[in-house]
Amino acid sequence: MNKELQMRLFTLDWRLEDLEDLQEIGRQNFQTSIEKEPGTFFMAMGAEKEQPERTYVIEIYADENAYKTHAASQHFQAFASFAVDHLQGRQVVNLTPEVLVEKEGGLSLLQASNQQLRIEHLTIKENQIAAFKGVVAKEMKQSIKLEEGVQLLFAASVTEQPDEWIFIELYQDQEAYDKHRETSHFKTYIQKTKDMVLDKRLQVLTPQLVVSRGTF
């Protein structure tokens, strides 16, 4: 995996009355970024149905310079200005990409849909990290190749805590995820890693905005 890649997970808290404006200014930022910034590879925003005022944003850039180019852009500055006035809370986690796979051709989802965005947090036994990565990589590549409803599967470790992993997954809908869980490669992954994983926590999000170049 390219060590220059910049990947981050943001948790952003807003007021409910600001969400409609957030969707529009976020759409402008995402759409313009993917159209005009060659180094912007992936951006996604989603929220849990039970807590729509807390949004999760995942971003991947080619390198630090690509991120700086994005941060200096007029469209991002418009978003940043909106955030100054309306953002209620912000957390950021720096991630190290481990395995990134997605369907070819890129992706542009600029409004809420029936697709399902899942964020899974795992704690891996420290002496099993390399083995875990090997199993994960094989399963993810098979899923993208064989399953029409699997749009992307990203696995990353927390940069400051490499035994903490975060999975970002996008499925066509709930049915696609259910079918994924019944595949032989997914069941093999679960069986082989059950003794490697110490803890697991899942968030199911409604994707509000997703753009990707299909780089991976």
Automatic annotation (TrEMBL):
Superkingdom in the source lineage: Bacteria
**InterPro entries (alphabetical):** ABM_dom (IPR007138), AI-2_Isomerase_LsrG (IPR050744), Dimeric_a/b-barrel (IPR011008)
Task: One Pfam family, please name it.
Answer: ABM
| Location of the ABM domain | 6-99, 116-205
GO terms for MF? catalytic activity
Q: Please name the PANTHER family in this protein's record.
A: ABM DOMAIN-CONTAINING PROTEIN, QUINOL MONOOXYGENASE YGIN-RELATED
Q: What is this protein called?
A: ABM domain-containing protein
Please give the organism: Streptococcus cristatus
